[in-house]
Write a structure and sequence with these properties.
With 630 residues, the protein is α+β, with helices and mostly antiparallel strands. The radius of gyration is 57 Å and the shape is elongated.
Length: 630
């Protein structure tokens, strides 16, 4: 029993130990689990913080898209290359990370020169590294201008700052370079510099005096012409000169006119303080006249005013002379057959001077009236000729000038007048057609005299028919046409039977009446394409183009019969006169062309036959087979 009790006691003790071990093991297991969970939570939190920091870093780098940010290790090897660096230099991060050094992006010659100036050795193995370390050591992190080299070899200026890159313990582990392209900035600065130089050159060369006063009414700048025009003493003008002192100097010299100088100065001060534009003229003691303009300056940053002084002495003199010349011109135009005009783009009168003496129309009547309305509508032109109106309209349509273009116009009474037109097109500042400007001269008397001279040269004075000169000119044209087209010409010669008896019986005045009546009868009986002329005395000749001998004979017979049927009233005679004519007809074909004298001689031979055969008849000349060109 005792043994059994001991065994039971031993088992109980062993059971207690086992339970304690189990409890300890369970606690250890729970503690381990808690440690694992805690470690896991800490790891998760660290990873989260890392991802957040990395995201923030990327956001900063991406936000700097206009700036190149390059991080390197202590050896200068690229470790970070943002999108801004890619945009500026043309490399991707994969192309340069762990492969390129920071100095690879600069011209070697530039690095050597900077190293020399900095007093450091240039290391060829790692170009520029010592130089960058020197910059960091000297705390040269302020931006400086450097020249960068892109992947394609092109270079550009950039503002670069280099700072040390430190770890969490403050240990320098590399370099951080931030660069921004300043090409546009430098161009703008250069442009501003050039503009400043140009502005100064302009101010110095301007004949106008220019001065600028600030908001405190003290002088900011004045150009040399300002001193010269105002004849100010040496050393008087300087930056900071109060406007009041300048005004007082002018008032004391009497340039503001009579009155208390101080009151005049106060008036000038009131004008400039009003910040209103001003414009007036001042006569200097020398008699020179200055035109003065004041213009206020006012914006958020600049206040003050600009004053310009322009010497208008010569202008005033020229204006006076121009006015006197204009008066003389107006007087000359008003007493001469000339008028000056200008039209708008639509061809209507904008300005008229002197028209009344030429056309009878006043300026008020013509303003707004179309230029073309003054052309005489019944202008006579020859066959195939271009009218003067057509010539003028063609010139205007082509925007061409016209000179001494003779035109038949209509005056206020509706009567035709002749004018010589001169005009040229006018264009505005943008090259847009604006109209015409010109001068017209009344040449009616001259034109009529010329026409009379032409008529005397080409027409018979008594009958108004073509004379020998005009006939021969037309004959040459028709002969050329015959040669080209292988046509035929016919010729008529008419002679009044017993015309000498008419003169002897009724007198030469009635003889002339007889000749004029016959001329009228001939012209009314022939075709428009034919030409009749008085060839001398009582002899008339008619050219019949494209007319064969038989047809020419029919025309001649019609003429003879019409003349025979006429009764011609004579001066101081109760009974009208009856006359007859004899007619000779000749033909010339293109294959048998003869000289004009031969051609005329043939018709004359036919006329002679008609006379010999009893007169008042038609005879024609027939070319024999053996007769060739004469």
């Amino acid at each position: 029993m005792a043994n059994k009790a001991e065994k039971l006691a031993a088992l109980a003790a062993e059971n207690r130990v086992l339970r304690e071990e189990i409890r300890v093991a369970r606690q250890a297991s729970e503690l381990t689990a808690q440690l694992v969970v805690k470690q896991f939570e800490q790891t998760e939190a660290a990873q989260l913080r890392f991802r957040l920091a990395n995201a923030q870093r990327q956001a900063v780098l991406e936000a700097a898209s206009k700036m190149a940010i390059i991080a390197t290790d202590l050896e200068g090897t690229v470790q970070l290359f943002n999108q801004g660096a890619t945009a500026l230099l043309g490399y991707t991060e994969e192309q340069v990370k762990d492969r390129c050094t920071l100095s690879d992006f600069f011209p070697v010659a530039d690095l050597i020169e900077r190293s020399r100036k900095a007093g450091v050795d240039f290391i060829h193995r790692v170009p520029g590294l010592v130089l960058f370390r020197h910059y960091v050591k000297q705390n040269f992190s302020a931006p400086e201008e450097w020249i960068f080299v892109r992947r394609d070899g092109t270079q550009f200026p950039a503002s670069l700052s280099i700072t040390p890159l430190k770890d969490a313990d403050g240990v320098v582990v590399g370099f951080l370079a931030a660069a921004m392209d300043i090409t546009d900035l430098k161009a703008a600065q250069e442009e501003a510099r050039r503009n400043a130089v140009y502005l100064q050159a302009v101010l110095d060369s301007l004949p106008q005096g220019v001065c600028v006063f600030g908001g405190d009414l003290n002088l900011v700048v004045a150009n040399p012409a300002f001193n010269r025009l105002l004849r100010l003493p040496d050393g008087f003008v300087h930056p900071g000169l109060p406007f009041e002192d300048l005004a007082r100097h002018s008032a004391l010299r009497g340039e503001y006119g009579p009155g208390d100088p101080e009151r005049l100065v106060r008036q000038r001060l009131a004008v400039v303080r009003s910040a209103a534009p001003s414009h007036f003229e001042r006569t200097m003691r020398t008699g020179d006249v200055l035109q003065i303009q004041g213009c206020p300056l006012a914006d958020d940053d600049i206040r003050g005013f600009v004053i310009t002084y322009t010497d208008v002495t010569l202008l005033k003199k020229a204006q006076g002379e121009a006015q006197r010349a204009n008066d003389r011109m107006n007087e000359a135009i008003s007493h001469s057959p000339t008028f000056v005009w200008e039209t708008d783009a639509a061809g209507c009168f904008l300005f008229v001077q002197g028209a009344e003496s030429v056309t009878g129309h006043t300026a008020d009547m013509l303003l707004g009236t179309p230029f073309v309305a003054l052309f005489f509508q019944e202008e006579e032109t020859g066959a195939g000729e271009e009218s003067r109106l057509d010539i003028w309209q063609r010139a205007v349509a082509a925007r061409q000038p016209f000179r001494d273009l003779l035109a038949r116009w209509c005056n206020r009474q509706g009567e035709p007048i002749w004018v010589a037109m001169n005009g040229k097109p006018v264009f505005d500042g943008h090259g847009v057609y604006a109209g015409y400007r010109g001068v017209n001269v009344d040449v009616t008397e001259l034109t009529e005299a010329r026409k009379r001279m032409e008529s005397m040269a080409l027409f018979d004075n008594l009958t108004g028919m073509a004379n020998r000169n005009q006939f021969l000119e037309r004959y040459r044209l028709e002969l050329d046409r015959q040669r080209r087209h292988r046509g035929v010409l016919s010729l008529l010669i008419l002679d009044i039977d017993h015309f000498k008896a008419v003169n002897d019986t009724y007198g030469h005045i009635n003889g002339d009446i007889c000749l004029k009546h016959l001329a009228s009868t001939i012209v009314s009986a022939i075709r428009k394409t034919d030409l009749a002329a008085r060839f001398g005395g009582e002899e008339f000749i008619v050219l019949l183009p494209e007319t064969e001998l038989n047809e020419a004979g029919q025309i001649a017979e019609k003429l003879r019969m019409r003349v025979e049927a006429c009764a011609i009233p004579l001066q101081d005679q109760d009974q009208p006169l009856k006359i007859t004519v004899s007619v000779g007809v000749a033909e010339m074909r293109s294959e048998q062309i003869v000289s004009f004298d031969t051609f005329l001689g043939r018709a004359d031979q036919a006329l002679y036959v008609a006379k010999k055969s009893g007169r008042n008849r038609v005879e024609w000349f027939v070319v024999q087979a053996d007769q060739g060109p004469g």
